[in-house]
DNA sequence: GGCCGTCTAGACACCCTTGTCCAGTCCCGC
DNA sequence: GCGGGACTGGACAAGGGTGTCTAGACGGCC
């Protein structure tokens, strides 16, 4: 997706719609909506600007597709993780927690960027609200499955989800070790149950395996 | 600040630096950084665009001043509320809670907008991080004063502050009554102590007195 | 009254961006 | 081999943004 031959004509590998979306998503996540210009995208793809208009009707069309993909990836991941089977509530929360730490499941920066951009657009706002409702509903159901009373499940789901969004909105820059040290306490805050050593160890192992990626800042 | 006579020359009331900042802050909070253009501001003030450059060196200079005022208002409010005297931890948390519900103390939309914008700028980012550290430190100290162990205070401060930021990042639109119904449960999550009826009643009264403002959407 | 400092309007140059148009190049099926 | 569809490059117009410059109006101070 990055190193395309810039030969004129379709001789070399041509860009696909997906390529444009990839670059746009990365740019949106790192530099915000304002930085997503057709020119910038085409330069990153090593391709002419007009190529863009073959794949997309307009810049707005790109953002529509962007929102679609954001929803499909980020929201789906959360829902799937919340619905995963687990013996204890702590284990369930850890499942959701995997979204926060594994870039393959969830892109925090993208989520924040989409949120910041969608605030201006009414149609995007509606979609965003729907996504948030879907996410919290899934987490709420997760708590309910583990026997929490309806409104208790609701508050716990909100605390969990809202706090995580806030964490990314703050965009704290602290080493993974510092974050992990607090994990057991956070878990207990969410579940109301003291996590077992075995559960904490599993979470720590998973986090360490994936979070290294987020400790680097790409200069793009 | 809104109805300025547009008479040529300084004959009528002239705009002040504060006027520009007021309008810019309002616009930033409601439409995001991209919407804050010199032209838009001047139109809202009923004044020529070039007037802007008498008050500010450049558009960037405006944003510097904006950040300054945002910090002075929003951050100061939180710190002051966190440092206010209170008999119980619940009461202390309620004090901070006043920021979230009283527009005179804290502007959530502005906070979110500044956050979204500052992400792109390095200097603004540094300032933002400093503000967040100051806020959480004040809340952490608040918990510590009520006898919480150091790292317990730290986690509780983070849960409280991070969750609130997340709440505004989500920008949930729900009636004040629904929010208030959950307030006691949230309080207990933050403090670990069941709030007394009297404390809940005081919080509810305060919230009802101020939150009506936020139930309206201004069309600007 | 004269003058200076404050404040404003309008014109201008310049840049960046979007969206369109057209000529042209390549792959692929026939 | 060839013709059409997929795909790209460069030129173009139009709009909106910033920042500068100049001419000038007004209030207050001397």
TrEMBL record, chains A, B:
The keyword DNA-binding applies. InterPro entries: Homeodomain-like_sf (IPR009057), HTH_TetR (IPR001647). Gene3D superfamilies: Tetracycline Repressor, domain 2. Residues 37-56 bind DNA. PROSITE patterns: HTH_TETR_2. Keywords: DNA-binding, Transcription, Transcription regulation. One of its GO terms (molecular function) is DNA binding. Residues 14-74 form the HTH tetR-type domain. Pfam families: TetR_N (PF00440). This is TetR family transcriptional regulator. It comes from Roseiarcus fermentans.
């Amino acid at each position: 997706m990055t190193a395309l031959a810039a030969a004129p004509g379709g001789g070399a590998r041509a860009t696909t719609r997906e390529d444009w979306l990839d670059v746009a998503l990365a740019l949106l996540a790192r530099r915000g909506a304002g930085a997503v210009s057709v020119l910038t995208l085409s330069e990153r793809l090593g391709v002419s600007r007009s190529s863009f208009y073959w794949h997309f009707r307009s810049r707005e069309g790109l953002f529509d597709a962007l929102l679609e993909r954001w929803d499909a990836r980020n929201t789906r991941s959360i829902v799937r993780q919340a619905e995963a089977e687990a013996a204890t509530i702590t284990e369930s929360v850890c499942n959701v927690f995997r979204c926060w730490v594994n870039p393959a499941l969830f892109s925090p920066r993208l989520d924040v960027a989409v949120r910041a951009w969608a605030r201006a657009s009414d149609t995007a706002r509606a979609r965003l609200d729907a996504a948030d409702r879907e996410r919290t509903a899934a987490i709420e159901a997760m708590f309910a499955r583990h026997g929490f009373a309806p409104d208790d499940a609701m508050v716990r789901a909100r605390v969990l989800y809202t706090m995580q969004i806030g964490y990314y909105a703050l965009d704290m820059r602290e080493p993974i070790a510092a974050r992990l040290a607090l994990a057991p306490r956070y878990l207990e805050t969410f579940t109301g149950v003291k996590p077992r050593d075995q559960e904490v160890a599993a979470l720590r192992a998973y986090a360490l395996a994936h979070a290294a990626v987020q400790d680097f800042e790409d200069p793009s």
